[in-house]
Amino acid sequence: MQGIKRNILLNPGPATTTDTVKYAQVVPDICPRESEFGNLMEYVSVELARLVADPAEYTTVLFGGSGTAAVEAMLTSAVAEDAVIIVNNGAYGKRMCEIAEVYGLHFLEFKSPADDAIDLAALESMIETAPRRIAQLAVVHHETTTGLLNDIALIGEICRRHRIEMLVDAMSSYAAVPIDMKQMNASFLAASSNKNLQGMAGISFVIAERGKLEAMRQRKPRNYYLNVYAQYKFFSTTRQMRFTPPVQTLYALKQAIDELKLEGVSGRYERYSKSWETLTDGLARLGLATIVPKQHHSKILTSVLEPDCGGYDFNDMHDYLYSRGFTIYPGKIEGTKTFRIANIGDITYKDIEAFLQLLEEYLRQNGHTCGKGDDR
Ligand SMILES: Cc1ncc(COP(=O)(O)O)c(C=O)c1O
């Protein structure tokens, strides 16, 4: 197997992958309606569910599409006539509100600061005083806008008290931050192949309680391609996706799952956390401040305040790093100038050390006085 040029992706997915995952896509052509391919999809579905739940009780509904497809599928298939509360404390919570708006769902937006924990008493009070019955609550687990990790176990507890189904966008936490859907009372969870799973982009999925999926049978669909119930039913009877799946991406996903099983979700999170500690120590040394307090941080992605020095320019810094094999990402917080560094994928703290060295070089060349920084 010939080694492929290794780029260090510090954007929050698609992430750096192993060569074995890349090469897993090179397979003989196959019609995805063959039972051999059905076996592959069955394996992938079961293993994806197993990472967060007991596959006897929960199952995975696969879609061809980016992560937003799974979030859109989850919201527009699970939410019925009653209202849904959508927690918005970043760009991805906002996106769920935008999806709800487009489909005309009855939703209430619970706005919360992008850089601090959710006020759970205020959230519960919104549920109790809502003008109509709340049947669901949708929340992003890890807000990839900032690095804020929402406490879905506590939110799930509130949902349990009020008999509300919890829908979780776990796009950037799944396969790194340990999740137990049953314990956390999550009925539906959306994620994708190309972040902490370290697979290729192109597959997204909804993991759901089997009972909740069956209960959707009577419901009038409001979507077509993204219909979770239709996709679930078709797959469980035929072991095929309703429409053409991303065939080679699924082979890569199988390989990525096998590699994750060797490392374990907690082993992966430990590796990511070590990279994050290295990163945040380094940023503080350079005098760069971050946004989210440590106790609420995912340890997966960090939003950094842009340095206030004359020579700094994000695009220029990006190009400097990119030409040296490191990809960084622009910020996404409204009204605050930030850039983002993710520490996911097949990388280690050694790569972060190399990145910090280049970052320091760039900043010094452009007039930044590297010194003591934020100590949060
Ligand atoms: C929390 C969250 N939700 C949804 C998405 C959307 O995923 P995609 O860009 O693959 O559609 C992302 C992407 O970064 C995300 O981080």
Features:
376 residues; alpha/beta; Aspartate Aminotransferase, domain 2; Aspartate Aminotransferase, domain 1; 2 domains; three-stranded antiparallel β-sheet; 13 helices; 40% helix; 17% strand; binds pyridoxal-5'-phosphate
Q: How would you explain this protein's 3D organization?
A:
This protein has 376 residues and is α/β, with parallel strands linked by helices. Helix 11 packs parallel to helix 13. The chain has two domains: 238 residues, Aspartate Aminotransferase, domain 2, CATH 3.40.640; 101 residues, Aspartate Aminotransferase, domain 1 (Alpha-Beta Complex), CATH 3.90.1150. The protein is 40% helix and 17% strand. The chain has a seven-stranded mixed sheet, with helices on both faces. Strands 11-14-13 form a three-stranded antiparallel sheet, with helices on one face. A two-stranded parallel ribbon has the order 1-12. 47% of the residues are buried. The longest helix is centred in the last third of the chain and has 22 residues. The chain has 13 helices and 14 strands. Bound molecules: pyridoxal-5'-phosphate (PLP). The site of pyridoxal-5'-phosphate has 13 residues, from helix 3.
